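tool_log.txt
---
The assistant was asked to compare two proteins side by side. It first ran the structure predictor on the initial sequence, then on the second. Raw inputs and outputs are pasted verbatim so the downstream comparison step can read them without reformatting.
(1)
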Amino acid sequence: MKQHIATALEATRAAGATYADARVVETRHERISVRTGHVEGIEHGESLGIGIRVIADGAWGFAATSDLTPDGIRAAACEAVALARAAAPTLHAPVTLAPVGAYTDTWTGPCGIDPFSVSLDDKLALLLAADSAMRTEAAVRIAASSLDFLHVHKFFGSTEGSLIEQSYHESQAGMTAYALGGDELLPRSYPNSLGGQAVQGGWEAVLALDLAGNAPRVGEQAAALLSAAPCPAETTTIILDSSQVALQVHESIGHPTELDRVLGDEAAFAGTSWVGLADLGTLRYGSEHVSVTADATIPGSLGSFGYDDEGVPAQRDYLVRDGILTGFQSSRESALEIGRTSNGCMRADGWNRQPIVRMTTVSLEPGTWTLPDLIADTERGIYFETNNSWSIDDRRLNFQFACEVGWEITNGELGRMIKNPNYTGITPEFWGSCDAVGDRDHWQVWGIPNCGKGEPMQVAHVAHGAAPARFRNVRVGVGR
């Protein structure tokens, strides 16, 4: 891999690039799924290639190849330079980059048991046990469970002198019970919807979730939803569980604070942002209880690494502090627009994509409340758990979210179950209504391995730390 990097950088210099970086990325993935007592699918895949990014005549160029012969790498390097020169006449100004140090380093993510060393029989046995336990409830007519594993090994090198090797494993597991009654099919998931929980780690992370042990409760709650009350249409107080807070942060804080969106450079696939450059340091994004960080240093998080794909070290940076917008997620190029250096948020979906601004671990910082105290302090409202659907406009301003289950809160106690609870809001008004956030003991990092952005689309693996939080005067029970 080091030789591939050296060959690429030498070729870009010879072709006239004033800056170049190269990434050799090798990935291995596996997915296993079970559905209602049957093995639904077993997928394996591997990928290896190099992506070469250059500045020539003041413009960016990028090319990639899976042909890792010296001739193949040199051809891709020359193509990247040619593309940069072709783009140069369209520039308003030449590309400039914020400074970064030259690093020679190795970084490895946490992993106790290599998930690829675990037998297929053991993996299927775990899923089939969970599947069977969910279906002990008669109303559960469909059950779905899955395991996903990823290993990434990559080298980064640049003409500025960096040579960085990184390696990590990701493991994901989850299950959903679907209860059927009349014309309704209602889901209940664990530990989260959309494939469950994903972390940097190994087989030990899957075992810790205890899918089979939690499956009976999941099936029982799915069945109970069939006779649960519908969500009332009203304006009330809501408490969101930590997984729903995490998704709320993702959609209404994480994306709008990506600096490429703010600058209008990302507009086609995922929209722009309701936030502007002039808002930095002055915009009240939420209440004084809302502080949000972008932190790529949290062990075991999908959003963690040693260095981003521009060779910038992982770091922790405030995006919102005590309710005020204080930062953006940036690249070496975009950071200059706000007079700063990059905070390390450039990542690419594999060797054949160029880095773009992506979230790391964007988290709502913990407060001081326990969940029982939050509920006891709420005279009337609804407690929401586990996302079911979401909708938000391109600027990340107006949104509607629905969860799998809710419980009424009356006089500080949880009451009857509510099915299909949903709520709507406007981003700064919603975060401005936050008056309490759960403490560090209730704070958890949730992995989101399916964040889409860019054209051609790239799927990033990001994460969000969150604890349960309370919001006042929220519209719920929105008609569809």
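(2)
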Amino acid sequence: MLRRKNSGLSLESIARAGFWLAAAFAVVMAVMPTPPRVPLDRYGDKAEHMIAFATLALLAGFAFPRMPRLRIAERLSFLGALIEVVQSIPALHRDCDIRDWVADTLAIVVTLAVVNLVRPAGRR
């Protein structure tokens, strides 16, 4: 028997769209030679990194519920490292800082741990 798909929007589909939009936004902001100033500037660069990657981790945790959390953490951490490598390109006039990647990874791990408490992996 064929099952009819629910035509309504699910939390997963909304989170997935939000994740890809947030990821694109984060990458664009990270590689812009002179990104716009944001209210978080007074808290420092690390706070911006942690908020960006905590947001990505939160969205990914709900967007990809059947993906192992460790895999999500690994791939988001790799994205953070890749951004730092791209920022080392002299033409961008940005700084490559391993501490930014550490802040990204810390935010990812903490956020996914909280997501795992709220929504265990594999849950629909």
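---
observation on (2): The longest helix spans residues 11-31. The chain has a mean pLDDT of 88.
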